[in-house]
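FORM 7B: Structural annotation worksheet

SECTION A. Query
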Amino acid sequence: MAKAQRILIVEDDEDIQELLSYNLELEGYKVDKVASGDKALQRVQADPPNMILLDLMLPGIGGLDVCRRLKEDVRTRNIPVVMVTAKGEEADVVTGLELGADDYVSKPFRPRELVARVKAVLRRGSRAAADNQAVVEIGGLRIDPGRREVQVKGKRVDLTFTEFEVLRFLAQRPGWVFTRYQIVDAVRGENYPVTDRSVDVQIVGLRKKLGRAASCIETVRGIGYRFRDSE
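SECTION B. Predicted structure
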């Protein structure tokens, strides 16, 4: 029998802590709980978990600083982090994603949604080492990085260099939320300048060219974009 994956919950609200713990344990995960950023860092160093659910508003070291320290440390940078945020913290969500957090869940959340997010992030982690040249097919859309070719329902779609790079970047991590600055950093080149504002223009152009397959690119309000996770 496979060993149960362990999730560290970093949350100072006991009711939310118990709600998270109860629903994750129902799904077969092993759960550890701490109530502060300081204790979270100590626990992760002593016994690294498979994932961290991280509240942003914490006593002592705040959630964003915890995320920053984890992602700066070579020993912990690959541990998936899902932020648990209150509404109205969009700026913090953007910062967290740019620090390296993998996803976020807004309070109040539905337990089923939370569990689904956890499963999705763990699943993505298991396939993160996949070849970046792998062909992506979803909803009639086919992206072939090796041939630099995109097809919708078998019909080739002509994209600009930047449009293709944006699409490929998003498609390599289905379900991941990327900020505009992350997209800029990933696709800009010496001869192809891209800015955070022009990312929106590229997305508009992509959606027009992809037609019915345009729904694969989802807007995350106040944050950025993601490629729809078919699973």
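SECTION C. Observations
Helices lie at 14-26, 37-46, 63-72, 90-99, 111-127, 161-171, 180-187, 196-210. The chain has a mean pLDDT of 86.

SECTION D. Sign-off
Analyst initials: ____
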